[in-house]
Amino acid sequence: xxxxxxxxxxxxxxxxxxxxxxxxxxxxxxxxxxxxxxxxxxxxxxxxxxxxxxxxxxxxxxxxxxxxxxxxxxxxxxxxxxxxxxxxxxxxxxxxxxxxxxxxxxxxxxxxxxxxxxxxxxxxxxxxxxxxxxxxxxxxxxxxxxxxxxxxxxxxxxxxxxxxxxxxxxxxxxxxxxxxxxxxxxxxxxxxxxxxxxxxxxxxxxxxxxxxxxxxxxxxxxxxxxxxxxxxxxxxxxxxxxxxxxxxxxxxxxxxxxxxxxxxxxxxxxxxxxxxxxxxxxxxxxxxxxxxxxxxxxxxxxxxxxxxxxxxxx
Length: 314
Description:
The protein contains eleven helices and seven strands. By secondary structure, it is an alpha/beta fold. It has a seven-stranded mixed β-sheet with strand order 4-3-2-1-5-6-7. Helix 4 (99-114) packs across helix 9 and helix 4 (99-114) packs parallel to helix 10 (268-293). It is globular and about 50 Å long.
């Protein structure tokens, strides 16, 4: 988070917090009890030192619950849009507006631009169909890409003619899994990385791509919508193989940019504008330095982030 915030030019440090639990085994009431207990535990440092935001298995509902428990609207971001302060002017910007997926789309466009290509007709595979994966698929296909494969925890579906994203969103909402989509091939979840596509968007699992499976990748571009979808060593291996990887702390910064806009009292249009500006600028700079110095985009991004932290500390 430190590198992500520094690269995005946001006046935040970096921290992560979470709850160790299996959400699939909990009732809504039990999950709420855990969220409230977590909120009480972090209350002494919120929002003076720590500001929460939604991530895996949390969303606007949980953020509202935390803010209510702490009794401070600025304790968390990613709150519902109708969750406002006493003035009624500073309201929530839920991550369900698709901020992270929007940033992934802009990072993908810049990666293609670097190679002198456009998104139109490019075949994509999206690993994970939660908040990030859904919006990444939606924005990318609206901009001209073809969704060839998509996965969730139950498995992977593929259609060489292209998967209808709007129909898939409805299936996911109604039946809980992309594997309920009719008229598509169903394969194991892990097969997503070996599909014959131009671009892979990891948007769920950590360590999706490993030393053991990276050789099976046919895509030429990987844009990391999820955190830690591969280790730095694997990113180096892919770099040597000629595969362009836009690192997680570059590509998926849309969420924290949205959090910043909410924190300063901005609106949805401000969020969308800043995401486009920051993700475009940073992806371009990271790829440029990677090319000039012949180092991986991750190493280039870390260099830039550290330089910005150094400047800010003087």
